[in-house]
Amino acid sequence: MSSATERRSLLKAVYEQARDCRRCALHQSRTTVVFGSGNANAELMFIGEAPGANEDRMGLPFVGQAGKLLDKLLAEIGLNRQDVFIANTLKCRPPDNRDPHPNEIEACQDYLRRQVELIEPSVICSLGNFATKLLRADSTGISRLHGREELRLIGSRAVRLYPLYHPAAALYTPTTLETLRADFRRIPELLARGTPVQPEPLKEIPEAELEDSEPEEPPTIALEPLPQLGLF
Ligand code: URA
Questions:
Q1: Ligand 1 pocket check: which of 88, 125, 142, 171 to mutate, most ligand atoms within 8 Å of Cβ?
Q2: Cα(13) to centroid of ligand 1, in Å?
Q3: Ligand 1, closest atom to CA 88?
Q4: 10 Å Cβ neighbour count for 29?
Q5: Is the CATH number of domain 4-211 3.40.470.10?
């Protein structure tokens, strides 16, 4: 675990790398890289889809109508943006707000993994299909998964993943809004469960030992149930 200052400066280093990113074609049309914003020590992260026009202009996530709804839902459970960290699956705006392409998600996912590993949240709310599918490495859609928490590994971090409808989907559909609101109300309970048990960090084996050692038989029994690996 890093100290708060160390964590912020490590996160800033990832931001500085992302700011000049050219890993996919979206760099040609973006105005700003929307890295994410909020509390680098947050226990709770939200992961959306991709910046829209307002976010692209301002360089901040969720500053439009969907963001206003997100703020309102947060306030209803006694939280605000300073309590959480908000990021997106893609850091750059897809032209005309089209869906992210698989190659863009692939090119961008390392930034998200590093954000999660540095912030070390206990709970991650994936907002909508794109973030949920990426973080679960599975194509099951949000209407089947919303409101069901599960333990997942994101990079080296074990988190309580809690898929939610995307606030943009709730803007004009009252029944989706009520479902999202009801799912939101369970966030404090998930946070109260605390940090999930973390996997043992991988030990570095000195090169000399590697050369001498006999190849090991693969273990036949898993000692603990392993949370399923995410895409990272
Ligand atoms: N929708 C998202 O998924 N992310 C944003 O930042 C804004 C709208």
A1: 88
A2: 23
A3: 4
A4: 12
A5: yes
Q: How far is CA 145 from CA 14, 104, 148, 164, in A?
A: 31, 24, 6, 8
Centre of ligand 1 to C-alpha 88, Å, is: 7
Q: How far is 60 from 51, CA to CA, in rounded Å?
A: 8
Q: How far apart are CA 70 and CA 75, in angstroms?
A: 9
Model pLDDT for residues 72-116, shown as the tens digit of each residue: 999 999 999 999 999 999 999 999 999 999 999 999 999 999 999
Query: What per-residue confidence (pLDDT) applies to 216?
Result: 52
Q: Are the beta carbons of 196 and 183 closer than 8 angstroms? A: no
- Percent of the residues in the chain that have a pLDDT greater than 70, as a whole number: 90
- 59 to each of 37, 38, 63, 90, 229, how far by Cα in Å? 9, 13, 9, 13, 31
Domain coordinates of the chain in residue numbers? 4-211
Q: What is the DSSP letter of 150?
A: E
Nearest CA to ligand 1 atom 8: 62
Give residues with Cβ within 8 angstroms of 71, minimum separation 6. Answer: 80, 81
Ligand 1 surroundings by CB, under 6 angstroms: 48-52, 55, 61-62, 66, 88, 168
